[in-house]
């Protein structure tokens, strides 16, 4: 079993002449933070065009297949998104601290909805369908603007997000890390440990020992912070990883089962169907159809 990793604080440094960070990545880019659990006081927008990947924001775990647009609140721990980008795929990241706008900027009536948006973002927000594409296009177009124009465009992106009704709160039950620094450090240790060891056996005694708690105290603590039991979180992590392999690899489903940390194929398929509302085979077949349709539309 691998050693326990320390949580990572990411220092955000905007480019000279800009008060926020804008980064655009194209094909063959491999995200160094794809497997690193990290946090920062800056808010963050991530737009992934076309690519699929594994998403973990707070205690929310999921797999996306056709691009992603998320808004991540201050100090909400998360991981990288698309990983290695393929031909025609892009990822754009915007990170900023609200202090650059001044302490009362978002208190004016015109910005009230944006302030509410940022409060919701403390639990993470994912945008869907047409709103995702419309806002994503605006974000990508910022690459060719000067710093002044980018600032105006960023405010417009805030407005579009605040006006959207097509979104999901990722940690709907709340995520309590912003309340105590010691909780943030401790739960980050747990999440990093799961990321490093999810495909091996992890017992409650094992993980609670690593953070110097009894098993019963750890179970209560983890449920209080994340809204999930540790067993539920570990199972979801394994299922999301399995979905990622179904999308990205040609591995057999039984091989994916064991590669994802399950030791019983029947149990794996049962849990997968409960979580994704379809069998692993149906999940993979739907991906093939979606990819085929995308290729067909691009040809015609």
From TrEMBL:
It comes from Arachidicoccus soli. The keyword Transcription regulation applies. Gene3D superfamilies: Homeodomain-like. PROSITE patterns: HTH_ARAC_FAMILY_1, HTH_ARAC_FAMILY_2. Keywords: DNA-binding, Transcription, Transcription regulation. It comes from the Bacteria. PANTHER family: ARAC-FAMILY TRANSCRIPTIONAL REGULATOR, TRANSCRIPTIONAL REGULATOR MTLR. GO terms for molecular function: DNA-binding transcription factor activity; sequence-specific DNA binding. The keyword Transcription regulation applies. Residues 188-286 form the HTH araC/xylS-type domain. This is AraC family transcriptional regulator.
